Every structure is written in C-alpha cells, then in structure tokens.
C-alpha cells in the first residue's frame, strides 16, 4: 500500500502532466499540485544554478523541455541536491547531440565539471610530503577535462566558439571557486595517473614520458619540477598517500 502511494506521488510530481486519476486518488488535488510545483521548482533551481551559460546558449524553451523530460523519468535518484545537476547533464547530453551546436555540449560539460569541483568533498589528509618514490595524493576537488572548444573563456560570444582543442585541469581555490588551468597532453596524463594513485610518481613519470616519446633529460626535469611546484601551490597535489 505504501509502495503504491509512493509511486502515485512520484507520478504526480514528475510526469509531464499529472493525471486527474492520480490526483483524485491522493485526495486534495489542489494541495498536491502546489506540492508538485514546490518539488519541481527546487530541482529546477539547482539545475539552473549549475548550468546558467548552457541554459542561455540552448534557449529557455529547449532547456525547459529537456528538464521536463528528465523529470518524467522519475525525478532525481540522488539524496543530495548538489548531485542533481550531474544527473540532468548525464540525461541531456545524448539528447542534445543532434540538435545543438557542438560547442554547447562542451559548455555543458565544462559547467558541470566546475559545479562538481565546487561541491566536491573535503580533501583527504596526506600521509606525508610529496616524494618521487611514493604514490601521490591529489585533491578531491580536481578534474581533468578534454574539450574541443575554449568554453572556459567567457563571456560566451554571440556567434559561439570556434574549434580550439585543449585540456583543462579544474581545481577549487581557497575562495571555493573552480579555476581552470590549461595542461599539455603529457601533464594531463600525469595528473590523471596521480589521481588513480596506483603508481609512484617516478613510475608514472616514466610511463607518461615513454608514451609521449619524450626523453627524461634536464629540460624535461626542469619543466616537471615547475609543474609539480605549481600543483602543490594550487592545492592540486597534497602530498603522498598512506
């Protein structure tokens, strides 16, 4: 009985249009319509907060219809409001692939990555200082994002973005903002290896250098040292894992 009532409430809140039969079964249709509006407004509000530029680029009608279609699948599956926009983007990107400009897809990916970085969990405590013979610990609020368009450069141009492939590291700064840092392909591979944490720094550097056909000479070591120092200063690299 309780399960059936829960399904009725879910349909009333998330179907494109609630059925009169469901409203009558629950009783007090006017009250349930107000409740439906409150629930949907809360979910739509957090989605709008996470994806303002994407919404503007796609247009209010198209964006609203996508959100309504997502809600009609049963609403959010997470208990945490901060994860709601991620579910919407996972649902929306396949739908938008054929009818929005390609750069808009990158913009949505960039905005949701920025949102995820801002709302990521607190960092783990490192077991010690960063060393080359240990496994590194990367901050929890760090994402590597490969894009075909420079959507991190705002404001959005009226005619959109032209192609310009690049890789970003998004990290959360001390003001709780997501900051983009451009990485070259080797640096991006290194950071992803350090996020996995299944190799020592020395092992991951050797593997990345080999895969990119780069000799580990003085020039390489100098650039690597600068990269590591920047990562530590920015709070991207925290130290070593336990």
Quick structural summary:
With 242 residues, this protein is mainly alpha-helical. It has two domains: 2-100, no CATH class; 136-240, Alpha-Beta Complex (Outer Surface Protein A, domain 3), CATH 3.90.930.50. Helices cover 54% and strands 11% of the residues.
Gyration radius over CA: 23 Å
**Briefly, what CATH class of the largest domain?**
Alpha Beta
Number of helices: 10
Number of domains: 2
Biggest sheet details: 3 strands, antiparallel
What is the CATH topology of the largest domain? Answer: Outer Surface Protein A, domain 3
Strand % is 5-15%
**Per the principal axes of the C-alpha atoms, what is the gross shape?**
elongated
Q: On the 0-100 scale, what is the average pLDDT?
A: 94
CATH architecture of the largest domain: Alpha-Beta Complex
One letter per element, helices H and strands E, the order comes to: HHHHHHHEEEEHHHE
Instruction: Report helical residue fraction.
Output: 40-55%
Question: Which blocks of ≥5 consecutive residues have pLDDT under 50?
Answer: none
How many strands? Answer: 5
The SS-based structural class is mainly alpha
Q: Largest sheet, order of strands side by side?
A: 2-3-4
Distance between the termini: 50 Å
């Amino acid at each position: 009985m309780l399960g059936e009532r829960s399904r009725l409430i879910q349909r009333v809140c998330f179907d494109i249009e609630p059925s009169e039969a469901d409203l009558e079964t629950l009783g007090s249709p006017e009250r349930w319509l107000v409740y439906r509006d409150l629930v949907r407004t809360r979910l739509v509000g957090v989605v709008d907060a996470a994806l303002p530029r994407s919404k503007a680029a796609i247009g209010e009608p198209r964006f609203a219809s996508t959100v309504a279609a997502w809600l009609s699948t049963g609403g959010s599956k997470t208990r945490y409001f901060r994860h709601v926009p991620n579910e919407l983007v996972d649902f929306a990107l396949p739908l938008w692939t054929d009818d929005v400009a390609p750069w808009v897809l990158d913009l949505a990916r960039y905005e949701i990555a920025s949102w995820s970085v801002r709302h990521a969990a607190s960092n783990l405590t490192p077991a010690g200082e960063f060393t080359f013979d240990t496994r590194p610990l990367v901050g929890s609020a760090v994402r590597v994002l490969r894009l075909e368009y420079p959507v991190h450069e705002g404001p959005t141009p009226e005619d959109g973005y032209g192609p310009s492939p690049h890789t970003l590291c998004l990290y959360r700064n001390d003001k709780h903002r997501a900051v983009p840092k451009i990485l070259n392909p080797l640096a991006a591979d290194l950071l992803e290896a350090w996020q996995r944490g299944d190799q020592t720094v020395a092992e991951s550097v050797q593997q990345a250098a080999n895969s990119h056909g780069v000799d580990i000479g003085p020039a390489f070591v100098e650039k690597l040292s600068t990269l590591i120092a920047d990562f530590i200063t920015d709070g991207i690299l925290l130290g070593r894992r336990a």
